[in-house]
């Protein structure tokens, strides 16, 4: 039982009384708060005591100590933080990895590279996570070695993290090893996560040597690997990548209702094409077909009794439609403009964008750009004015007060820019 008056941690923190907070560590009731306060202050005098706290029996205390040491950034904590990567608590492992990434100096990189060969698989995995955040090219060779381990290796999880790290570092030396990893497939598909990460990493590096292998991967039996390959092709770009994405967009199915996997690939291809600076003339007709036919991106086997499934389906359907519109705008030309005027933005599309603003799922500036660029402009004007006038607009849910201001701001900025471009007659056209 604590017999003395407890230290006031908040008061000590305001005063930046490091010595007082260190003394407060002796009191179990306020120890956790004191550790967090020492991290916020960032005083190096606390390092020794915080390192000692990494050995505490309570995982919350160990995690808070790791977090505080990362904020302070003193290299004296490196060895103990590396050891904490093998902690029995995943929460402590994660905080130790983040702390090491925050410290991020030369000694940390060297120690993490060495930890990729640690006997503890958990240490290997979290070392790779930290190296991904640091992004130092000195780690490439060891990460490539980790990537190449066999599926039977107990430390298989490090392969996935090594692929992620190589993608974030972005060194071209990793391209060939990542391509090899992408093509590897064990009998039980234990390599699935690693192959998905390899495809993603190739997209981040952006080297055109990866295009042909990624095109081949579009026919992979695993839908997750397929989708990552689609996204990677969109990031790399080029005529070959664009051609492959157009091929996916026009993919057919023998069934009356297009298979779910085919629609998923179509949706992914539309988003990837929208990300290309110029999707190319060959994309024009397939994009117009996709825009005209609602069934192109619509799944028909969604159970209406499951609201979450219906909402998720609507999200991906509208996302694909908006991607097609964006890709058509990038292709440009009279035919694309005519298709956008005749089959472009509907009131439901506009409401979908505004709901994303309301739910903080899209950057407001991005929403404004999408709406201003949309055709026909009259539909955008109609829905945004309805929102501002509090008329029924197709937007579901009651907006929280803190989000309503952002929604109104998007509507006002959108209207101002459309009127500035089209003239005030655009307002009259939808009112008459």
Describe this structure in words.
This protein has 432 residues and is mainly α. It has four domains: 1-88, Leucine-rich Repeat Variant (Alpha Horseshoe), CATH 1.25.10; 104-228, Leucine-rich Repeat Variant (Alpha Horseshoe), CATH 1.25.10; 237-251 and 258-342, no CATH class; 345-432, no CATH class. The protein is 67% helix and 0% strand. It has helices at 9-14, 18-24, 31-41, 47-53, 59-72, 78-84, 90-103, 106-115, 121-134, 140-147, 157-169, 175-183, 192-205, 211-217, 223-236, 239-249, 260-275, 284-292, 307-331, 334-343, 347-358, 364-373, 377-388, 401-422, 425-431. The longest helix has 25 residues, at 307-331. The model has no long low-confidence stretch (mean pLDDT 86).
> How many helical elements?
25
Shape estimate: globular
Distance between the termini: 79 Å
Give the number of domains.
Answer: 4
Tags for this entry?
single chain, 432 residues, mainly alpha, Leucine-rich Repeat Variant, 4 domains, 25 helices
Summarize the SSE layout with pairings.
Layout: H1 9-14, H2 18-24, H3 31-41, H4 47-53, H5 59-72, H6 78-84, H7 90-103, H8 106-115, H9 121-134, H10 140-147, H11 157-169, H12 175-183, H13 192-205, H14 211-217, H15 223-236, H16 239-249, H17 260-275, H18 284-292, H19 307-331, H20 334-343, H21 347-358, H22 364-373, H23 377-388, H24 401-422, H25 425-431
């Amino acid at each position: 039982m604590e017999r003395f008056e407890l230290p006031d941690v908040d008061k000590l923190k305001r005063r930046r009384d490091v010595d007082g907070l260190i003394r407060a560590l002796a009191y179990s009731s306020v120890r956790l708060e004191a550790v967090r306060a020492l991290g916020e202050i960032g005083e190096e005098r606390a390092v020794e005591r915080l390192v000692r706290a990494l050995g505490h029996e309570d995982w919350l205390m160990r995690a808070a100590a790791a977090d505080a040491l990362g904020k302070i950034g003193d290299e004296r904590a490196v060895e103990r933080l590396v050891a904490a990567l093998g902690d029995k608590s995943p929460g402590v492992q994660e905080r130790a990895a983040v702390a090491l990434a925050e410290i991020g100096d030369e000694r940390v990189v060297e120690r993490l590279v060495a930890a990729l060969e640690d006997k503890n698989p958990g240490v290997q995995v979290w070392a790779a996570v930290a190296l991904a955040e640091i992004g130092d090219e000195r780690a490439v060779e060891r990460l490539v070695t980790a990537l190449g381990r066999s599926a039977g290796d107990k430390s298989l999880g490090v392969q996935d993290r090594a692929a992620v790290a190589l993608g974030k570092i972005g060194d071209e030396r990793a391209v060939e090893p990542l391509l090899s990893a992408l093509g590897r497939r064990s009998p039980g598909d234990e390599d699935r996560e690693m192959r998905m990460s390899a495809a993603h990493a190739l997209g981040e590096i952006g080297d055109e040597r990866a295009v042909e292998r990624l095109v081949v991967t579009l026919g992979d039996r695993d839908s997750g690997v397929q989708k990552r390959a689609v996204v990677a092709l969109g990031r790399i770009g080029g005529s070959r990548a664009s051609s492959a994405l157009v091929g996916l967009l026009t993919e057919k199915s023998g069934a009356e209702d297009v298979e779910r996997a085919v629609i998923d690939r179509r949706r992914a291809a539309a988003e990837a094409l929208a990300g290309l600076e110029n999707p190319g003339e060959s994309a024009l007709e397939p994009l117009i077909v996709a825009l005209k036919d609602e069934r192109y991106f619509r799944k028909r086997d969604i159970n209406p009794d499951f609201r979450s499934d219906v909402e998720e389906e609507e999200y991906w359907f509208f996302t694909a439609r908006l991607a097609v519109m964006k890709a058509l705008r990038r292709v440009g030309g009279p035919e694309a403009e005519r298709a956008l005027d005749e089959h472009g933005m509907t009131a439901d599309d506009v409401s979908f964008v505004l709901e994303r603003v309301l739910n903080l799922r899209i950057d407001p500036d991005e929403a404004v750009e999408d709406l201003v660029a949309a055709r026909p402009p009259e539909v955008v004007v109609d829905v945004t004015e309805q929102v501002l006038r509090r008329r029924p607009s197709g937007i579901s849910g009651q907006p929280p007060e803190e989000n309503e201001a952002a929604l109104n701001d998007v509507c006002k900025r959108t209207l101002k820019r459309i009127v500035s471009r089209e003239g005030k007659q655009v307002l009259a056209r939808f009112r008459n």
